[in-house]
């Protein structure tokens, strides 16, 4: 027992190490190496080991016999070799060979481990040295631990020496190598750890030398400031810990089985007892208890020495690895780990600021909640962290949010479950743009709806589907997202596809006379149409598709089957539905979309189905005659276009039906046209004519109406209305549409046929006449007519442009270019009605929907104008009216203007750059004519910065455009204005032009500097704008030094911490005060630029306890702060549930005396910074309650209570300060 106490003391030293000393020193206590520390220990009791193995052989893993065979085989090989052969390097595997085997992944790891075990059994010091060098090599360090270092140095000294020799050129190391190499190396390293432990689990794991020495080294490396050491050793230590947990579980099962055997035999009558067998069993139990104690000690050492510190490491990969392995431990050994003392780490990590760490934490919790026997132990954890998990459904990382929703689904299935208000956090996510998150929320919603149905004891499938659809309708109505039914259907498609494909139940509910309410019928029709679209197209709605997905053969087969089922069911049902809801515009407009998803060829497959075609055509014509709403007429037009397609054999019947409809509408309009032109029509005649013209205009978009000769009548009507000033939008807007569609269909017919020259000239005259009418409409004080005229002008000018006739030389006669007056009118329209902050149709009480509609209309108008520029209808200089509003209206039109800028660069890079410069010149000239203010100049500079970014990163490609831009700008700056008294009034434009200088190459800078000297008068060389522009043309380093010299600016104080500052101190420069303390304290004096390899935060020096007022987190006792005590962990439920209260922590002893300037500073901000740095000094301590308090405080401070679904921030206070100061 004394030996065990000595071993436990060494492990306690391993756990309670201090962080004092050099930042590069391993913080492990420099105890003697294991070979010296265990010299007094008794050798393992081999007879007991054999007894334990004999009694519990049935409990060994499947490959344990193979392991024993390998051990015996290695022993026989060792015995057969002469003693002198162990020193031959040829017979022992080297560290480099092990490393190559791990990296390649092609070598059997069992063979590699067996060869190393053979060498270890021959000479355990040499074998351990090989293993140590393999670990060092795996860290990316090419230094070697020699035998002299191994014999004479402690672990901390070895690590310190390796750190000094870690002078690799690249900051990469094996675990940070991108690509497939990382995958192979990690897999090989993990396999090596697994095979090593399994090969030693019955022998060498208990030799009290190999694993204690290995774990001590890994613990020291895991606290190194070198990221490669810390990352690799932590990952390896966590994998070894996982395998040790498995061994501990096996040994525990063996001990329990042996104990049961002993109890059973001991309970026999005295005469039946086998005393010898009882002694063997007792010896086996004692041996297993010793083994279990040794494994538990090693596990405890790894947990406290590595995990407790590294689960909050600065590197997110290390934190994620720790949490991932913790989840495995909790599932593998719940008796030892599944308690509040270990679960709290998962709860704290839910607040981690890095999404990969949160993701591993949530996945670990999923593994626990999947086990029903663990639910009881998780009740306290669930109640404590449920609020945090609910807030994480809005995590900024969608993958984390998806896993959180899946986790909450598992919690929902427990007895406690979630309350309805808690489920309300998840329901809105079915409308999320991320499809994975929406599908997870849909699965949650589907599970909830089915649980409600199961509580109602519904038996038949039809009844279940009907109940599901009715509950879904209620949810859809209550969610108040009536225009987003497609997103709800897409979210439920994978989890409730059978219910959403039950067309029979849906149509039965709709055709019932007293089944659903009016609102429920509308919701069901919308959901049904969304489901039809989803099944027929097999594509997600807009905004949820991640690129173009190619359907597999299986998906295509399912799509075709669904489409046939839809067609077969709805061909007879659709006329009935249209007849029932023909008077309701909102419902019938949705139902009219159904045939667009049919397999329309089925109409001609049998005479019986042709009857339903006639019924459908009759219903469509009846609906057109009943309605004048735009949505209904547009839906009819789409259906007319689809049914009239020449690829269907029944298209002639559709043509006949719709031609008869157009005949009636044309006759109605012609009846009133003469009265309209004469101005004698009354209100009824005006209404009837406008209604007929609306229907004709709607059908014109889907059917050729040139045969009805309506163009002349519509054009005369427009001219008469404009001349008389009777601007009736109900009549003028459809008249504009009819005329424009006539010209569009005429162009299509001209392309598809061979018209005569006279016909082409007549068509061109019609185009010219219509453009004049539209130009007159642009100045009308009637918004609908004005907007419609502008949009139609953009379309027709593009259709009859030079680029459109390029592929048809015979149609060059039809090319129509806009006149100068029309160009100016369109540009004025853009400035007055698109780039305008004041809209007469908007007021303070306008609904958001109206604002969105108006914005969408403006975007369409701007896009139409930009297309005219891109396709050469308008000159590139016309784009200046667009470019100069890039910055001011970036929120509304930024994407359109950015695309236009990029397209113009493809057309002519130089001319595009000159257009950019011209737009800035126009803004500058406007600024001079108005009241000049610095704010106006700053706005133009902001625009210049944004436009400069459009030149991209390929500076060689942008050379000529940039030089041309600068030359135009210089010429403009020194251009004399005849009516200006001041000489060179435009010289300030050089300030704006300097925003483009950072994109210039050095040779171009010199060329432009010479050009500036030649153009600039001598008197203007000393002007501040000229000096500023000249500095922008100089090389960056020289320009920066000259700027400091001219402006007299001081170098920023080194005492002020800079954001995102590297911790390197270049040679020849003075280090900052914050860095000086740890550099001077370090025991390593090297010129090596170490920060490229470091990652953890350096401890900031703190003031002595007597010089600072103690805070709530510091101890007010009189104990010596230089002798830290281990902080007890809360192991009871009371301590855990009491809740993250701040423990009293004694201040850390300062490493070095602070400079006097720091001690005497009374600045409030500096005191606040020092208080945060004190937190940093405690960041690596084993004060887990303090870390929990920080997490809780951050979660509360970063949350927004007024937002019900706002995701709380995941930033740690200490870590965020760490990022700003020491990254």
TrEMBL record:
The keyword Cell division applies. GO terms for biological process: cell division; chromosome segregation; sister chromatid cohesion. Residues 1-87, 1040-1223 are annotated as: Disordered. Residues 1-16, 1122-1136, 1179-1192 have a biased composition (Acidic residues). Keywords: Cell cycle, Cell division, Chromosome, Chromosome partition, Coiled coil, Nucleus. Residues 56-69 have a biased composition (Low complexity). Residues 307-392 form the SCD domain. Residues 271-298 form a coiled coil. The keyword Nucleus applies. Its main location: nucleus. One of its GO terms (molecular function) is chromatin binding. Residues 1065-1101, 1160-1174, 1206-1217 have a biased composition (Polar residues). Residues 1143-1155 have a biased composition (Basic residues). It comes from the Eukaryota. It holds the Pfam family SCD. One of its GO terms (cellular component) is chromatin. It is found in: Nucleus; Chromosome; Chromosome, Centromere. Belongs to the SCC3 family. Part of the cohesin complex which is composed of a heterodimer between a SMC1 protein (SMC1A or SMC1B) and SMC3, which are attached via their hinge domain, and RAD21 which link them at their heads, and one STAG protein. Component of cohesin complex, a complex required for the cohesion of sister chromatids after DNA replication. The cohesin complex apparently forms a large proteinaceous ring within which sister chromatids can be trapped. At anaphase, the complex is cleaved and dissociates from chromatin, allowing sister chromatids to segregate. This is Cohesin subunit SA. It comes from Xyrichtys novacula (Pearly razorfish).
